[in-house]
Design a protein that fits this description.
The chain is mainly alpha-helical. It is built from five helices and no strands.
Length: 140
């Protein structure tokens, strides 16, 4: 349990940063690589989802270990992160179909792989802390 959660902190922070970046003044969805996102939902919706998922992950990481079930929240957050990066990666990939691939597109497989690793780590921690066991009253 003494291992750090640096990868999880990094991915949660990136989700927060991306979401807050969308909240900055300007119409990000008018950029060519964001048009597909804008066609699905307004900029604020994408920002709200990203900030919400990132914030829940940060809270779960912060309280990790204070309650034995927190690794389950980390697994849930990393699972949402995995889905998030798959969706964003796919939408950005379809936006450049037929054109040159921007270097940023190569980040998504890395994010996805490390989210998978984070899911594994959270699941392993859940097992070791007994997070999946039924609650039992303390008996002296």
């Amino acid at each position: 349990m003494s291992q750090t959660r640096s990868v999880e902190w990094l991915l949660a922070s990136m989700m927060l940063a991306w979401g807050f970046g969308l909240l900055l003044p300007g119409d990000t969805m008018s950029l060519p690589q964001h048009r597909m996102l804008g066609a699905i939902a307004p900029e604020f919706v994408w920002a709200a989802w990203s900030v919400s998922i990132g914030a829940v992950r940060v809270v779960a990481l912060y309280i990790n270990g204070s309650w034995r079930r927190t690794p389950l929240f980390r697994v849930a957050g990393a699972s949402l992160g995995l889905i998030w990066w798959i969706v964003l990666g796919f939408l950005f990939w379809t936006a450049v179909a037929g054109g040159p691939w921007p270097a940023e597109l190569m980040w998504f497989p890395v994010f996805i792989a490390f989210e998978g690793y984070s899911i594994f780590r959270g699941a392993r921690d859940s097992y070791h802390t007994g997070a999946l066991q039924r609650w039992q009253p303390h008996r002296p």
